[in-house]
Amino acid sequence: MTSSGSLLLKALVSPVGRKVLTGITGAGLVIFVIIHMAGNLTYLLPGSDPYNLYAHKLMSFGWGLYVLEIGLATFFLLHAIIGVSIFVRKRRARPKGYKLYKSAGGASRMGLSSRSMIYTGIILLVFLVFHLISFKFGPDVGDGYVAIIKGEEVRDLHRLMTEKFKGPLYAFGYPVIMILLGLHMRHGVWSAMQSLGLTNPRITPIVYPLGLIMGAGVAVGFIVVPLTIYFTPV
Amino acid sequence: MAKQMTIHLRVWRQAGPEAPGRLVDYTVTEANEHMSFLELLDVLNEQLIGKGQDPVEFDSDCREGICGSCGLMVGGIAHGPQRRTAVCQLHMRSFKDGDTITVEPWRARAFPIIRDLVVDRSAFDRIIVAGGYVSVTTGGAPDANALPIRKHEADEAMDYAACIGCGACVAACPNGSASLFTAAKIAHLELLPQGRVESERRTMAMVDQMAAEGFGDCSNHAECEAVCPKGISVAGIARMRRAYMKGVFAG
């Protein structure tokens, strides 16, 4: 049997295959968060129409949206499962730790970001569940969140966003999580490229700082909207 | 006149593979700046033998940084604080008079402790046995330049061939991964025409063996490159992944 299923199974048990899968899914998730962030920024355009229209356009993909969502969920789950399994194996590979352990610096890319991947990852996964409950599965047209765009009734996601981020828990909790996302990407971007074998000594010095730029950019992009909502007087 | 130094050591002592170990404090008063770190341990051992105690066991052979026998965690860093230096070439001038230095063995499930600072690194041998060779009949030594190899490829192959198999990469890796060692062995063969033909098969066999030995997964911390006494680049690990993917998709 040489189906893609057996290929996936083979990759899941190999230390290199696991890295490749983590890299592919990680890269996919990075693309997703960038698109998501860009979409959120439409909230900042004047009026509620641009944001509601964007959300409505997205929802009108129909079955295409379901395909994307299933793909995205698969990526999230694979990424998380492999990440946890890497952490478990790491504990097994060194049952007794060092009394004293330091980084040698120099060529090392080890730091807060790389050492905290498992923790930032788990927090992001837990956050995702609450995030989906709040927004994706939150109040809809049936609950009175209706906006009229060009005579058509659409979900008033703008109102939901505004209401949620008027509360300090959302307004300040979300930015904290987004900083953790940026931290995760700081190591993740370079790590994905390295895991997919796309690096070499010439491009690594460019790819590594790219993680910092993208991580910081995504974090800032996501943080702007909640803080703008919170601090804008009604 | 060499500067005299007093060095305090906290050395991991463990009587056997299953015995519980602990850090034991020692002081060496007659150290000097020109001694290598291993010579410092030699002096300590003479002290211990003089007192009728068991000397500290550690591995060493050539003491000129090329055999890969020695390897200690010195002050929490594999091979100590000086870059691109095996611990036998680490000199006491890298430390200050009165310093306290913690010395531990490599720690990994795949490198079981035999005694004190000595670990069993035969897992590396088994990774080599799995595919770290060229299985074509090469005959006698070929004429020079009979097989054209580009200069930069020959240089790169040599960079990876510089791996002495000391195990510092595994020791320094937070995950206890042997990726840098395995990748170096794969890369130095893959870069040359004699080794290229078997690259994918070799890569898959060696990676599978690496996993079977109980080494951890790589998380791209690149700490291995930082401690490698030969400065082997993690670019080799990217190369190994490319070869592996080619192998998987080629069936």
Written account of the structure:
- The complex is a heterodimer of chains A (234) and B (251).
- Chain A is mostly helical.
- Chain A has a single domain (16-90, 112-231), classed as Fumarate reductase/succinate dehydrogenase, transmembrane subunit (3 helical TM bundles of succinate and fumarate reductases, Up-down Bundle).
- Chain A is 72% helix and 3% strand.
- Chain A is built from 9 helices and 2 strands.
- Chain A has helices spanning 4-13, 15-41, 49-59, 63-93, 112-115, 117-136, 157-166, 168-195, 204-231; strands spanning 146-149, 152-155.
- Chain A has a two-stranded antiparallel ribbon with strand order 1-2.
- In chain A, helix 2 runs parallel beside helix 9 and helix 7 packs across helix 9 (204-231).
- Chain A is globular, with a radius of gyration of 20 Å.
- The model of chain A has no long low-confidence stretch (mean pLDDT 95).
- Chain B is an alpha+beta fold.
- The mean pLDDT of chain B is 96.
- In chain B, a hairpin with an 8-residue loop joins strand 1 (4-13) and strand 2 (22-32).
- Chain B starts with a strand and ends with a helix.
- Chain B folds into 2 domains: 4-104, Roll (Ubiquitin-like (UB roll)); 121-249, Fumarate Reductase Iron-sulfur Protein, Chain B, domain 2 (Orthogonal Bundle), CATH 1.10.1060.
- In chain B, helix 2 (122-131) packs antiparallel against helix 7 (199-212), helix 5 packs across helix 9 (235-250) and helix 7 packs across helix 9.
- In chain B, the strands form 2 sheets. In chain B, strands 2-1-5-3-4 form a 5-stranded mixed beta sheet. Chain B has a two-stranded antiparallel sheet with strand order 6-7.
- Chains A and B meet through helix 1, helix 2, helix 4 and helix 8 of A and strand 4, helix 7, helix 8 and helix 9 of B.
